[in-house]
Design brief:
With 260 residues, the protein is of the alpha/beta class. The chain is built from eight helices and eight strands; from the N terminus they run E-H-E-H-E-H-E-H-E-H-E-H-E-H-E-H. Helices cover 40% and strands 16% of the residues. Helix 7 (217-226) packs across helix 8.
Length: 260
């Protein structure tokens, strides 16, 4: 198991790489988005050299708010153009996997089936862009749309090259019970990457430190490890005080070792 952190896209990327190295993270979950990490702002050669010097691999992460399923075709095309730029930069930085977030679009403009189909069309375009770059697209479960096994299964069955990105925090939102176990039972063979953060359920994706919310981490980590997963796990803990991120890293390692 490898533990990673996500850079703050409002901070200088080289400083974020240095912080990840100093604090002994195994990899960087690199998000490319405004205000300081848009693909057009990244100085690729210095960033790649910094990653190599730090011994950090990356997993790509795209902005969650890009409108892949917009009913306005010009807006959707603009989002796909952004994706092309993003994938090119990720490729230059050495990423082989990039996560994307399905778009729930405008509820009253498109019905749920139409939203799914628009996402499918865009995902196919992204995969076509990514393949020549040696990148696999990973699709992440979300907190409202794309948060059921039925929705995820339809996409994964229709696109066998996609990987599944499990977000345990999202699996706890707008549900009666955290769906992590359900997702593992259904999609373990497609699972490529995991995000963890805490919350109190309901609607708010709070990105709290592990143990600060209501997610049963001992049970979740035990179930994840027993599934045979031993890959990358990103701590999506967003706090101005990064001691909470470091606490969560140590807590995750402790829980993982308890289940050895």
């Amino acid at each position: 198991m490898k533990i990673g952190m996500m850079n703050n896209p409002q901070m200088d990327l080289l400083e974020e790489i240095a912080w990840a190295e100093r604090n002994r993270f195994d990899f960087l979950d690199l998000t490319l988005e405004p205000s300081a990490a848009h693909p057009k702002q990244i100085q690729v050669k210095p960033a790649r050299q910094a990653l190599e010097d730090a011994g950090l691999k990356i997993i790509g992460h795209t902005a969650y708010y890009l409108p892949w399923a917009s009913p306005f075709e010009t807006i959707r095309e603009a989002a796909l153009t952004e994706m092309r730029w993003t994938l090119e930069v990720f490729s230059e930085l050495g990423a082989s996997k990039v996560s994307v977030h399905p778009d729930r679009s405008i509820p009253f403009a498109l019905n749920s089936k139409a939203v799914l189909e628009r996402n499918m069309e865009s995902l196919k375009r992204m995969e076509k862009m990514a393949k020549p770059l040696g990148i696999q697209i990973l699709v992440e479960n979300m907190d409202r749309f794309f948060n059921t096994t039925e929705q995820i299964r339809e996409v994964l069955e229709r696109m066998p090259g996609l990987g599944f990105h499990l977000d345990v925090g999202h699996a706890n939102l707008n549900v009666e019970k955290n769906r992590t176990e359900e997702f593992l039972d259904s999609f373990r063979d497609r699972l490529v990457h995991v995000h963890v953060s805490d919350n109190f359920g309901k609607k708010e994706d709070l990105h709290l430190p592990l143990g600060a919310g209501t997610i049963p981490w001992k049970k979740i980590i035990s179930r994840l490890k027993k599934s045979g997963y031993d890959g990358t796990i990103t701590l999506e803990v967003f706090s101005p005080d990064r001691r909470y991120l470091l606490f969560s890293r140590d807590k995750l390692r402790e829980l993982w070792e308890e289940n050895s």
